[in-house]
Amino acid sequence: MAGFLFDIFTVRAMKSYDIIIIGGGLAGLCCAVHLAQEGVAVCLLEKNTYPHHKVCGEYISNEVVGYLKRLGVDPLKEGAVAIKELHWSTANGKDVCIDLPLGGFGMSRFALDYLLFKKASERAEVRQATVIDVAFQNDTFTVTTQAGDSFEAGFVVGAFGKRSGLDKVLQRSFIEKRTSWMAVKGHYNYEYPEHRVGLHTFEGGYCGLSRTESGSVNACYLATVPSFKKSGSLKHHQQQVVSSNPILYRFFSEATPLFDAPLTISQISFARKPPVEQHIFMVGDSAGLIHPLCGNGMAMAIHGAKIFCELFVHASKTGTIIRQQLEQEYERKWADTFSSRLRTGSYIQQLLLRPFWANAGYQVVRAVPGLLKKVIQQTHGAPLA
Question: Which helix (H) or strand (E) holds 372?
Answer without folding.
Answer: helix 369-378
